Amino acid sequence: MYNNVSYRQFSVSGVNPPFSFSSVASTVRMQPAIMAWAPMGAVVNQIQPDPGNDGIWFMAYKVNTPTPGVWHYEYALYNMNLDRSIQSFSVPLGPGVNISNIDFHAPPQEPGWANDGTFNNQGYSSTPWTVTPAVDSISWNCETIDQNPNANAIRFGTLYNFRFDADQPPGNANATVGFFKTGSPMMVAIQAPGGSTPTPTPTPTPTATATPTATPTATPRPTPTPRPVPSPRVRPTPVPRP
Question: Where are the beta strands (DSSP E) in the chain?
Fold first, then answer.
């Protein structure tokens, strides 16, 4: 169920369609293409919200410094086979963080056709996600399933990108991901501007062992010499007179 994808690297040439594709590497079996980003410095984590009942998706991110004092944050959410789909993505921002060059990318959806499985055979929407910058976060979202069953959610086999520049370096943080069909939003580990920097565990200072104080040896007291007991005096026995 979870190893039915593979990928192969291609070289693309051309300025306008049609483009030319040529294979430059052999097929990597039983892994999604997002794993090819990891050797380039990205962190790629597999997420399984409901093991045994639903599929998996991948949270990937990379931070670099295009110019001094500027950090570029790139996030990729890939839905491999998660039926509930993904509807929102929110990144926390630390105090005083200024962001710019906010962007979003998603592949265009196919137009609808008869019996395509979408609501009223209209096909899935290609409307870009709405971005909402705030003082302490930046969020993207598509419509909810109640608003539009054909909304541009991240469905099977698709990958969406979210990016921006910031004036503060990365730290550990948790993004919030919301689902389209069912399930509560979940927290996933990422790096974000102004996040917390892991605090090294201090090396414990050894406690000095107390030196035991010698107990003074008691000086034995001399045993008193017993006083001699005087012998009783023997009185002479009187001699009777004649």
Answer: 10-13, 20-23, 43-47, 57-67, 70-79, 86-92, 99-105, 130-133, 137-141, 158-166, 170-179, 186-193
